[in-house]
Amino acid sequence: MNITVLALDSVFDTGLAAVLDAFTTANELAPMLETPQPSFRVTLAGVRPTVRSAQGMQVPVVPLAQAPVPDLVILPAIGHKMPAPLEAALATPEIADAADVLRSWAGQGVRIAAACIGTFVLAESGLLDGEEATTTRWLTPMFRQRYPQVRLDAQRMVVASGQFVTAGAALSHLDMSLSLIRQASPELAAMVARYLVVDTRPAQSAYVISDHLAHADPLVAAFDRWVRQHLAQGFSLEAAAAALATSKRTLARRLQEVLGKTPVNHVQDLRIERAVHLLKASGQNIDRIAEQVGYRDGVTLQTLLRRKLGKGLREIRN
To answer: Does position 204 have pLDDT exceeding 70, yes or no?
Structure first.
């Protein structure tokens, strides 16, 4: 399988390394398995002849014209983590040229995968319009506002939709790479995961950074603060709207526009975030923690934690 890893200027060092290491490791481990395994021929290419990483390292790319026709293209993140620098980066000619190249590849049936902030570059091409996708959680409001035609599910770590695969935040580069290897050989992907000591992380919920999301909008930020101050109490949308001098409808609409979820869902996420912190940082039992985050008993909280975090709950409690 021919894979082109498209490195753009200021490529995120960790993401690029994770992708390259995953496929290199797969090739190295393949002979250890009894059955014949796929071979991954990876070419590191650039839209521009000279590429430097976000940490200033020169990336040895080859021109796209010299790269073999790809079966799969992987787009690692670019190293702009905050909205203003990212918006400026997305307006550069290099991103426009990359979008043209991606559209051309997609028209030839090439599969395209992007991780973290690389999902913004893929979305700039318009190829994700109408498709399901995920992205890095702290930039969800920006993604929703900039690409309203994309069916965004920022809870999930990796989303496959048609010929496209998208992955969440920084280290999801590895999750995405393993999912791509798994499509070719589940057995090989399992061995690579064991060798690299990678645990299953189907959701980003355990790594939520609510402040980044909430602060994108003043009303949402105020609601976020109010909820945190009243976390142990039963939630009332009417009381929240009255405290913030707005209507229930306006508050619900703004939460949906900025965070892509209802007020109740956001309250639940904040409760889970606080509960996870208490599980890690205190010796309190689940019933005591439930009281502090607004649930009557530990059974309800534990059910929600299992639903949201899956196997990650066991790791938190251990």
So the answer is: no
DSSP string, 58-109: EE--EEGGGSPPPSEEEEPPBS--SHHHHHHHHTSHHHHHHHHHHHHHHHTT
Q: Which two tokens stand for residue 57?
A: 């390292």
Q: What span, in angstroms and rounded, lies between the C-alpha atoms of 262 and 267?
A: 9
Length of the chain: 318
Domain co-membership, 267 together with 141? no
The residue among 206, 224, 254 that closes a domain is: 206
Domains held by the chain: number:
2
pLDDT for 260 equals: 75
pTM (predicted TM-score): 0.69
114-to-34, 75, 286 alpha-carbon distances in Å: 32, 5, 38
Task: Tell me how far apart the alpha carbons of residues 112 and 101 are, in angstroms, rounded to a whole number.
Answer: 11
